[in-house]
């Protein structure tokens, strides 16, 4: 993830000065999805780029070593080799940005990645995911254990009771949501967060990363997210150190689109390997 | 599978993540042009009209210059043929029950839906506008317009009882317009039962396609006729017998010229002029969202024109920085590319912009341009102009698309002064998260539309229009319907032009008045002087004119008012205006009732005076009573103005406000010296205007008598009465730039002069064309028409959200 920002003196007045007009942001969210599209080889290239931003995620109660192993293999080989060859992208080393699992599965993930010879990071949700309503002591212990098991990135659920009472916490990567809420990554929310990231960068020179998570399932969605980042923050944010997409089923759809781009046919369910 | 050459690009794009072309096929547009053999004529009475021996003009793709088709240029006889067709179909179309018209409009909406791809590709191809804007914005809105007005037609018989369609409507559209401008006007016109002849500029195929779609629906082929020709055919269209109304949208100077040209032609003229908009950004705004507002207002193909941007000084730097960053992300290009923000907007738009930029630089402004655009086509990039000296010509001129001219303000008061300090009054948006200042600005702006924290929203149910030199015609909503309606039984408008009327000398000189013998008027004698600023004053000319009764006896002398007296009266009226406009309708009604009571007390004197004018005693008493009643009723009617609209897709209300016009000048008719005076004065006051009034020429004494009561009851300057030579005073009023509206009831010549002279500040005028009016009839003396003309509409959009 991003190099730790040096941090800055906490100044609540920055937050209290921020004005957000909800209807205007909603309109912008609508427009941004309609105003930018990419087609043909641009679409293919953008989709492959999107793959490199994915935190390939499984956060289920019934996760075991076997499906974690499958996930890690998919993370290493996200797109069928012949499709990449057709696009002349087979030597680019395209993998997802990370795999993201529960703390108890970190061990499995590290092992499985090692087995396929892949050095992408293992991210773990920790700190009482998804509600964050546990004691600070256990939260910290959870992080310590996950790191011990080999996780190199931790998605922390902030204590929202503190936020709602105006006691903010700092961060060097912010995420729209846990993906476990009824409403997750939406464009209007993202626009507000991205503008805050940009303002913070202008004020301090620190680049904070951004990760939308939850509900991003289609290739088309992922393209919209990429152009949103491009429009609101600029190209310098379009790298895995500063931008991730938390998703589980998105990759399959991207692969289907690439398949269609290369072959001109729509893929059957069994044409592509499962993750 | 072998990697193709194209796929090698994927490698490169993977690194740069650039946008690529998203071309939209326009094969169907070309196929449609082929059905016309690439030669576009006119569409009249359900048939293509391709007369021989006409000049032709090529219709080109503005990006490439590729010839798409040739267009035949119309001549006067083609216009006449179209008007004839519209006249014939008016007979059946206007007699159709509202439900029949509604069905027809709904069918047209469906027809458009079936051929929408053809519509949007043709429009984008011919104009160069971004296809996304045409597809998602214009075509969708065009269908909504048809559907909305179909519903209006359904309910017309009940909702608009007492009104009838005006007749054949001539619609004149400028070059560089979107076909949507045509839809905004033909929908209400057709809905209420009018038929239309649209004169569109050459090389604009979309209106022709629309006419074809409408024509092929069957039974009423002649309701929409489209003629393509130069703007110079406008007067020919307007003066065609049968054309009752001319609607024009375009540049301000074109509108002014048309106003002068059409003086006395008979047809009513509705102007919607200028394209500039205004954006006020306060220090409590969501600046990022406001920047998007600027993009919507000036740097997209949604916006019709340029933008004046007023930014509060404390957020100036922050705003400029964000604007410049945002500009860098805008993309210009071929309109048929799906990922382009700004297309070409018709040939020639970039020339206007570049001229303005060059001038602004000469006058000392800083110019910032950015954005991604192809180098080979005639594009003007998004441009931000700042630091223009306030007095420089560019700061006064209309800002063209795609330019933004920014200047700073310090306080809300200053913002209002700067915003209103322009002759234009189209639309504006206010960006503030504080309700109080936002509404203060919203109500205080002299414009037709105000959006709070949004820009450029439109809806068929919301009236859109302007004030001042932006013209005073409306489209959309109820106001849009009234544009094409007239009170039942209004006689057809005929040409009343007096060819040898000399505009330079009309009413210029006042014939001298000499002593004419002893006065034999009743005692006490009516007050002498001009009623200006709340008191009676001696006229600047220091002379008087005699007033005689019906048998020729000298009743009295009245003051001979002149240009300077009119000037003083207008100034007094302006001083009184803010106070009066700020009163509640209830308070105004109370004051009108007080005047009514005073009039009642004077009844015997007034009735006997009327008797001396040759009115029977019984009738005279009835007339005074009616005058009293009108005063009382008017206040009550004005209370129920304005309303709230609910709009699809918008959370929050849109307020339709009825605001005072400002200073209203009224030239009363000679007939009915008391009743007409009261009937005109009452609605003007009830709607919050202040008034400069010229009373009946033959008997101004009634007005002066009522002035005695107004002197004690009304705030000074609310009503100012100037007596004297009517032609001379009319001239002074019509040429005055700071009078917001003028009602004239007098001779045909005077009416013609008023229409001609109103072009100066494009004030709305209401003239009687020399025809007398039945003041004692309810419809003509106190009908809803007076209330409509006595105030102007403003739409205030208030989106809400948490």
Provide structural commentary.
The complex is a heterodimer of chains A (275) and B (802). Chain A is an alpha/beta fold and 275 residues long. Chain A has helices at residues 12-17, 22-35, 40-51, 65-76, 81-86, 106-115, 136-148, 160-164, 187-204, 219-232, 250-263; strands at 54-57, 98-101, 122-126, 153-156, 173-175, 209-211, 245-247. Chain A contains eleven helices and seven strands. In chain A, the strands form two sheets. Chain A has a five-stranded parallel β-sheet with strand order 4-3-2-1-7. Chain A has a two-stranded parallel sheet with strand order 5-6. In chain A, helix 3 (40-51) packs antiparallel against helix 11, helix 4 (65-76) packs across helix 6 (106-115) and helix 9 packs parallel to helix 10 (219-232). Helix content of chain B is 41%, strand content 18%. Chain B is globular, with a radius of gyration of 28 Å. Chain B has a ten-stranded mixed β-sheet with strand order 14-15-16-13-12-18-19-33-27-26, sandwiched between helices. Chain B has a five-stranded parallel β-sheet with strand order 9-8-7-10-11, with helices on both faces. A five-stranded parallel β-sheet of chain B has the order 30-29-28-31-32, with helices on both faces. Chain B is an alpha/beta fold and 802 residues long. Chain B contains 28 helices and 33 strands. The A-B interface holds A 19-28, 31, 34-42, 44-46, 48-49, 82, 85-89, 92, 195, 202, 226, 230-231, 234-235, 238, 262-263 and B 1-3, 6-14, 17-22, 132, 136, 284-290, 292-293, 321, 329, 338-339, 341, 431, 433, 453-454, 650-652, 799-802. Chain B: InterPro entries: Ald_DH/histidinol_DH, Ald_DH_C, Ald_DH_N, Aldehyde_DH, Aldehyde_DH_dom.
Topology:
The complex is a heterodimer of chains A (275) and B (802).
Chain A: H1 12-17, H2 22-35, H3 40-51, E1 54-57, H4 65-76, H5 81-86, E2 98-101, H6 106-115, E3 122-126, H7 136-148, E4 153-156, H8 160-164, E5 173-175, H9 187-204, E6 209-211, H10 219-232, E7 245-247, H11 250-263
Parallel strand pairs in A: 1-2, 1-7, 2-3, 3-4, 5-6
Helix pairs in contact in A: 2-9, 3-10, 3-11, 4-6, 9-10
Chain B: H1 5-16, H2 27-35, E1 39-40, E2 42-44, E3 47-49, E4 56-60, E5 67-72, H3 76-93, H4 98-114, H5 116-127, H6 131-154, H7 156-159, E6 163-165, E7 168-172, H8 179-192, E8 195-200, H9 205-215, E9 224-228, H10 234-238, E10 243-250, H11 252-261, E11 268-273, E12 277-281, H12 287-298, E13 307-312, H13 316-327, H14 349-362, E14 366-369, E15 383-386, H15 393-396, E16 403-409, H16 412-420, E17 424-425, E18 427-431, H17 435-444, E19 449-452, E20 467-468, H18 477-482, E21 485-487, E22 530-532, E23 535-537, E24 544-548, E25 554-559, H19 563-582, H20 585-601, H21 603-612, H22 617-639, E26 643-645, E27 654-660, E28 663-667, H23 675-686, E29 690-694, H24 701-713, E30 719-721, H25 726-735, E31 741-744, H26 748-757, E32 765-767, H27 778-782, H28 784-789, E33 791-797
Parallel strand pairs in B: 1-5, 7-8, 7-10, 8-9, 10-11, 12-13, 12-18, 13-16, 15-16, 18-19, 19-33, 28-29, 28-31, 29-30, 31-32
Antiparallel strand pairs in B: 2-3, 4-5, 6-21, 14-15, 17-20, 22-23, 24-25, 26-27, 27-33
Helix pairs in contact in B: 2-5, 4-6, 4-8, 5-6, 5-9, 6-8, 12-13, 20-22, 20-24, 21-22, 22-23, 25-26
